[in-house]
Amino acid sequence: MYVRNTSIQWQGIAILIPCMMCFAILDTTNKFLITTIPVMMVLFIRYVIQSCITTLFLLPRCSRALLRTQQARQQWLRGGLMFICSVLGFISLKKCR
Description:
Layout: H1 6-33, H2 39-62, H3 72-96
């Protein structure tokens, strides 16, 4: 039987709200950046910064195991799809201004 823990649910909501605010701020800044900087450069900078920050936080905890995967094909597919979605999203933003 599933027992609800309302404390954990409220913690999840408390984390979700700032997360959504960060996404909104990120999308807004990206919308302004693509008016002056090429789309591909904004995408490149966005993912390089995100990768560096993630690596800095996770590398001390996971050591080199962070860089190994047993499902390389799925990771490349996921990365490619994420890149395509980002490019299409940015292009649509550029067309809507």
